[in-house]
Design a protein that fits this description.
CATH class of chain A: Alpha Beta
Distance between the termini of chain A: 14 Å
Structural class of chain B: mainly alpha
Shape of chain B: globular
Strand order of the largest sheet of chain A: 3-2-4-5-1-6-8-7
Number of domains of chain A: 1
Structural class of chain A: alpha+beta
InterPro entries (chain A): Ketoacyl_synth_N
Largest sheet of chain B: none
Pfam families (chain B): PP-binding
Radius of gyration of chain B: 12 Å
Shape of chain A: globular
InterPro entries (chain B): ACP-like_sf, PP-bd_ACP
Radius of gyration of chain A: 18 Å
Organism (chain B): Marinobacterium zhoushanense
Strand content of chain B: under 5%
Protein name (chain B): Acyl carrier protein
Oligomer: heterodimer
Order of helices and strands of chain A: EHHHEHHHEHEEEHEE
Distance between the termini of chain B: 24 Å
């Protein structure tokens, strides 16, 4: 069982940018646009901003508001699929015998978002990029909480964009872009516990993102992950902080 | 501003996704990299690719001569001009 404090969080999806918007939507979900309207990212200079694809704009849009006033912070960057629209366009270029764009290539790696944010914030703290299929969200938290043993604060940033049509028969993805930024701390914020549980059959058909968001918006008492194979994880608040 | 200079500027804007910049804002003589327009090493590779695609010009990635060609819009225009005359 791992304990940590959640100092703050911020989540972005098309039309959902505040906690109250998320809560209303989670209670009565309706289909979201598959594209993010322009996140302005005014904190970043135009010359660097042009390098952000939709995935990066989404991730930065969630993370930057949390990081105001923080000069240096290590980060865990988690994405199941990474920038598949960009990767696919590069592969199509290869198939078409086109020379590959150096910019496109440099941005297609899994740690591109971490790199861009590091340049934009002039923050050379450690960055860890991870991918997972099942349990992406608890595993991102596990990595961040582990790093918290050595650091006062750690950013945990989880993001994905919809898979291009071509890949959809083979893997799942949300039908809309999203990013969730969580600021984990050793000393400030709500007390949380992350622990392994036996994987539960018959978890509601909701995605990991929806389960985690329902928990963060206080609609569920815990967020349980893992659906029958491997290891399950549960995230919950410590009921009575006074007992610690 | 000659047509070739304008063409070079538009090529730079298109190749580097400089959506917010107008060709008229780029000075023919100002440095393109670091100072001036503020481009970086990935942009240099991208311009190299654009020169190859559009004008069939191939450059060595890291020679002093290449650095001179990439100094400004005027220097790039001179390079294209000299290749066309060959």
């Amino acid at each position: 069982m791992l304990s940590f404090k959640l100092q703050s969080w911020n989540a972005v999806a098309p039309g959902l940018e505040s906690e109250s918007q998320w809560r209303v939507w989670l209670q009565q979900p309706f289909p979201l646009s598959s594209e993010l309207h322009k996140v302005s990212l005014t904190q970043i200079s135009p010359i660097l901003r042009r390098r952000f694809t939709e995935l990066g704009r989404c991730a930065a849009g969630a993370a930057l508001p949390l990081l105001e006033g923080i000069d240096a912070i290590p980060g865990v960057f988690a994405s199941r699929h990474g920038d598949t629209p960009l990767t696919l366009s590069l592969l199509e270029g290869i198939a078409d015998d086109q020379p590959m764009s150096p910019t496109g290539f440099s941005l297609a790696v899994h740690n591109a978002v971490a790199g861009l944010l590091s340049i934009a914030r002039k923050d050379v703290s450690a960055a860890t990029s991870i991918a997972a299929s099942e349990n992406l969200m608890p595993l991102a938290l596990l990595e961040a909480v582990t790093q918290l043993q050595e650091r006062e604060q750690v950013l945990c940033l989880i993001y994905d964009v919809p898979l291009p049509e071509l890949y959809r028969p083979y893997a799942e993805s949300e039908s809309y872009p999203f990013a969730l930024a969580m600021l984990l701390s050793r000393s400030e914020g709500s007390d949380m516990v992350l622990e392994q549980i036996s994987p539960r059959r018959g978890l509601p058909g909701e995605s990991e993102l929806l389960r985690l968001m329902r928990f963060l918006c206080d609609l569920d008492a815990s967020a349980d992950f893992g659906s029958g194979s491997g290891v399950g994880w549960s995230l919950r608040r410590t009921v009575d902080a006074g007992e610690n | 501003m000659s047509n070739l200079q304008l063409e070079v500027k538009q090529m730079i804007i298109d190749a580097l996704d400089l959506e917010d910049i107008e060709a008229s804002e780029i000075d023919d003589n100002e440095p393109l990299f670091v100072d001036g327009l503020g481009l970086d090493s990935i942009d240099a590779l991208e311009i190299g690719l654009a020169l190859q695609k559009r004008y069939g010009i191939k450059l060595k990635a890291d020679s002093d001569e290449t650095r001179k060609h990439f100094a400004s819009v005027n220097a790039l225009a001179a390079l294209i001009q000299s290749q066309a005359e060959q």
